[in-house]
Amino acid sequence: MKIKLYHYVHCPFCLRVRMALGYLNIPFExxxxxxxxxxxxxxLTGKKMLPIAVIDGVAHNESLDIIALADQNDRLKLPKMLQxxxxxxxxxxxxxxxxxxxxxxxxxxxxxxxxxxxxxxxFQHKKEAKRGPFKELVKNKEEFxxxxxxxxxHLSKSLTPFYQSNEFSIYDILIxxxxxxxxxxxxxxxxxxxHDYLQNVKASCHFxxxxxxxx
Length: 215
Prior knowledge:
Layout: E1 3-7, H1 12-23, E2 29-32, H2 39-45, E3 52-55, E4 58-60, H3 63-70, H4 78-81, H5 85-109, H6 117-131, H7 134-139, H8 141-156, H9 170-179, H10 192-205, H11 211-214
Parallel strand pairs: 1-2
Antiparallel strand pairs: 1-3, 3-4
């Protein structure tokens, strides 16, 4: 199986694919797409949406579909794990956390090596149309942290040591990929238990956030 992954470094849906491929020990060719590049994703799948995985010459969207196609031996047990109440509840939580994670992290993501001056301007203009000026988000940082930390306190109670289990699962990839971007927010600190959990997921997935730029 040959995989070419088109992705954004900061995107949680792209991160979940990278983490899953790392956990499954599946090599892939990495292509970091500039955020203002509309042509590449549209030519591949007809819409500006990443991640896109070209698997054996066929382009696929949707992170969970990509993982399912790559996991030919069903090690992550996606069909089973994505059915039922646990996944629905977790997916709802991810959406809930995402608002505050993005408010905190977006103003800082644009200063990572992923962005050029033009893609930074494109990203900021697009996201500020929805969330308001990034300067205001930074000013309200404490409010977003307080809301998020309340949610993460409840999450910590579900880590035994993985999410509602003593075994690693796709749920842990979903959680870690949505929270990982907070590591670029200056002075933000995860609670110790949650930091240790995220580092365990990182080790299980052989994951390096900035691998395309620093390794």
